[in-house]
Structure formats: C-alpha cells, structure tokens
Write a structure and sequence with these properties.
Blueprint lengths: L5 H4 L4 H19 L13 H55 L11
Helix pairs in contact: 2-3
C-alpha cells in the first residue's frame, strides 16, 4: 500500500493509545479507592443525618466518575487493538488482490 499502513495513514499511535488506557486504568483504581469520612457528631441534630448523606453521595459520585474513567481506559485499549487488526486485515486483502489481479496478455502493450 503506497504511503504506509492504515495505522500510519490514519496517524494512529497504537502504543500511545495503550499507554493512555493503562494510565486511565491507574486513575480509575485510585478514584475507586477514595473513601470519604465526614465526622459530625451531633445526636438528634439534622446535621448528623446530613453528614452521613454527604459521605454516601460523595462516594457514589466518585464511584460513578471512576467507572467512566475505567470505560475510557477500555475504549483506548480496544481502539489500539482494533486499528492494528484492521491494518492487518487490509494488508492481507491487498496481498490477495495483488496475487489475484489479472495480468495483461504476453506481448500486450500497456501505454
């Protein structure tokens, strides 16, 4: 294929995509480890219930964020693999096409 592989033509850096996926996975793991501890002790006060709700809601928000970051990591990793698979499949098909292309008859002029 003139001009390089499909990965080259599309300017895809599969290694960089994989590295991004690994970095995002690390970030998702770090986010998943976040624990919120709001300690307000005022028995019988509405503040006590609110402080517990802050814990639960904040941790739920971080959990959701970590889930989205993890999904982005998976997309980056599978994207790198997909580009490489498509590049390989196209190269295989071009090789078959080159072998099976009709050849001009002997002595035919190709002006």
């Amino acid at each position: 294929m003139n001009g390089g592989t499909m990965v080259d033509i599309l300017k895809v850096d599969a290694d960089a995509l994989r590295a991004l996926g690994q970095t995002l996975t690390g970030q998702a793991d770090a986010i998943a480890g976040i624990k919120i501890a709001v300690a307000v002790t005022m028995p019988g006060s509405p503040v006590d219930g609110v402080s517990k709700a802050i814990d639960e809601n904040t941790e739920a928000a971080f959990h959701a964020l970590g889930g989205h970051v993890r999904k982005m990591a998976q997309i980056a990793g599978s994207g790198a693999k997909t580009y490489e698979e498509v590049d390989g499949a196209f190269a295989d098909e071009f090789a078959v096409l080159a072998r099976e292309s009709p050849r001009p008859p002997r002595g035919a002029r190709m002006d």
